[in-house]
Every structure is written in C-alpha cells, then in structure tokens.
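Something for you to look into today, if you have time. Just paste the record in under my message, thanks.
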Amino acid sequence: MKKILCVCLMLLLLTGCSSEREEAIYPEVDTQPLQQILNKQDTINGYKSVVNENDVLIAIDIKRMKRFKKEKIEKKIKKQLEEKLPNKEILVSGDLKIRWELEEIIDKKLKTKELTKKIEEIKLLSKEET
C-alpha cells in the first residue's frame, strides 16, 4: 500500500512540474521576429499573442520566482519588440485578464473588423488599475 502511495505521489509531482511552454500567435502571418524574441526569453513560461496591421498584443506567463520583476520583464520584451517591429504599437502584459481576453480571440478566430474592435477594448482594459 505504501509503495502504491509513493508511486502515485511521484507521478503527481512529475506531472505538476511540467516545463512545457504554451505559445500561440494569431493570425500566424509574418510572426518570425515575434517568435524569435519571445522564444529567447528565459523568464517566461509561455505567451499568447494577437497581431493586426497596427498592433501587437502579447500576454506573457512569467515564471513564479521572476514575478517580482514583472514590470522590468515586460519593459525589456517591449523594447526588444519595438526595435524589430518599429511600425507597430506594442502591448506586453503579464496580467491574467489580458491573457484570458487574448485566448478568447484566438479561440473564436475573429476576423479583421471584430479583431480591431476587440484589440481596442483590450488596450483600454490594460490601462485600468486594479
């Protein structure tokens, strides 16, 4: 009985410590510079991103012990992206509510007009203080 309990606990620990990165960019058109910069980051577990003709919105999942430097990480990634994509307005956020909104866009696969409207709503949401 003790052996079974030990095996179950070990499996639980191993599955809980998964190092799989969750990455998504919508729509997947000309995303090479974006992917290169985000995949180089060792302070994040993953990201969700939505891109249109004028904007790039990125919700990052910051590693647990790095969350104390959340703003610094966001600024660093934003600066790198602004250098690679100078003609786009960039929003990088570690906020969970922004991540949920981006996941909703990706799941619904919104088209241009609805996408632009939703992006504007998310920008306003990101400026709110909780």
User: Anything to note?
Assistant: Residues 112-127 form the longest helix (16 residues). The chain has a mean pLDDT of 85.
